[in-house]
């Protein structure tokens, strides 16, 4: 493809998590001129603790805390949260989406053919994961290996899991789609924070953004906002869609940990190797080894100071719940949501079951950690603020990320979001000539 400048692009995509990166990659593959605007940095995946802290743990930016002291993280970097996610793939609730007029079966099948999705092979399933599985089965749970987004043929024994970003490229992340889009001619403008979509006569015509403290603007015939469950409603509100950012989910979680001294864990433990979904109880349970830093944070938060350095003998289970919709995102990007009594009860019920599992696995000194969350979504729901093509009330303005999920969730959402990204790309190119045409000139202000 001929190089092009940002002044004549076909589509602007704001945000490059699994939603934005998928749309960018799909459109670039179809020869469209795509500009990706990303608040966080691009550049090489360093996979070190500095990258983890600066892109996932900055208070008020990537680490958001509710009044109930529930911490929620999101990755502010090219690739979004998938840079730091646990690489677990969960089946897409196709029927639920169909009931909202969104049929992404073909797109999900295509994604499954293209991506490295499979349960872990035996060599990657560690003794600690096996021990927890054994305990769970003895406690009566159907505890099976989960599918992972991992290039297992690239993995070598002892390789650390990419908690801090995976420089060995074993764990698939949306950064790979960003890189692919760039290799096909798309432009990645990193460190560019989109503030609003420019609307003229009921149509999106471009975006305003901050780059190095300067307010700039760029035009395009189509704008896709994909800034994640928190970032997207903020951009939409600034663009006139004031109802965005209410009644959302964030899939709260608690972990329960214990000491198993005769099995040692290391950096090569893979989180969420196996687990179980208790659909009727509204939560899932999986093994959850953590990075040393997160182990430190989780353990310190509940003052189990004597356990801070027992990282290698800690067996941990995560309980992740489907919380009821509620709360609001503040205009400043804060998260306001109280866990309902029902949601707390779900998590505590899960904690009791996790204790049983750990006891069966031979764990001692069992304790639970504080509430945490990592999947904000449902802030711009299909059927409310976007239609089944993911279009907003404004022409040429679309949303594609975890925000559009229409119902309470509680599951790893990445495959669903990728399916939605492919769905939107198809929709945009099927309407080629109408939606995706050449752009206006770039305007720079300020
Ligand atoms: C620790 C952790 C573990 C997880 N594990 C799993 C797992 O195992 N399986 C799974 O399926 N999911 C997992 N998730 C969740 C998953 O990563 C997210 O649900 C997914 O990344 C959401 O994709 P998205 O496209 O909606 O948004 P995001 O990934 O949040 O991407 C949004 C992007 O928009 C950018 N952005 C935000 N605001 C702006 C702005 N104003 N201008 C420009 N850019 C902006 C952000 O920097 C980011 O790149 C995990 C998440 C975390 C944090």
Molecular structure report:
The protein has 446 residues and is α+β, with helices and mostly antiparallel strands. The chain folds into 2 domains: 1-42 and 77-115 and 172-244 and 377-446, FAD/NAD(P)-binding domain (3-Layer(bba) Sandwich); 62-72 and 120-150 and 250-374. The protein is built from 10 helices and 23 strands. The chain has helices at 18-29, 49-56, 94-98, 105-114, 127-138, 174-183, 228-238, 292-301, 341-360, 414-430; strands at 11-14, 34-38, 63-65, 71-73, 88-89, 117-119, 144-145, 147-149, 187-190, 192-200, 203-211, 214-219, 222-225, 246-248, 253-259, 274-278, 283-287, 314-321, 326-329, 335-336, 364-368, 372-373, 397-399. The strands form 6 sheets. The protein has a 6-stranded antiparallel beta sheet. A 5-stranded parallel beta sheet has the order 9-2-1-13-23. The two termini are 33 Å apart. The structure holds flavin-adenine dinucleotide (FAD). The site of flavin-adenine dinucleotide has 41 residues, from helix 1, strand 2, strand 10, helix 7 and helix 10.
In short:
It is globular, with a radius of gyration of 21 Å.
Write the layout of secondary structure elements.
Elements lengths: L10 E4 L3 H12 L4 E5 L10 H8 L6 E3 L5 E3 L14 E2 L4 H5 L6 H10 L2 E3 L7 H12 L5 E2 L1 E3 L24 H10 L3 E4 L1 E9 L2 E9 L2 E6 L2 E4 L2 H11 L7 E3 L4 E7 L14 E5 L4 E5 L4 H10 L12 E8 L4 E4 L5 E2 L4 H20 L3 E5 L3 E2 L23 E3 L14 H17 L16
Parallel strand pairs: 1-2, 1-13, 2-9, 4-22, 13-23
Antiparallel strand pairs: 3-4, 5-8, 6-8, 7-16, 10-11, 11-12, 14-19, 15-18, 15-21, 16-17, 17-18, 19-20
Helix pairs in contact: 1-6, 1-10, 4-10, 5-9
The protein binds flavin-adenine dinucleotide (FAD).
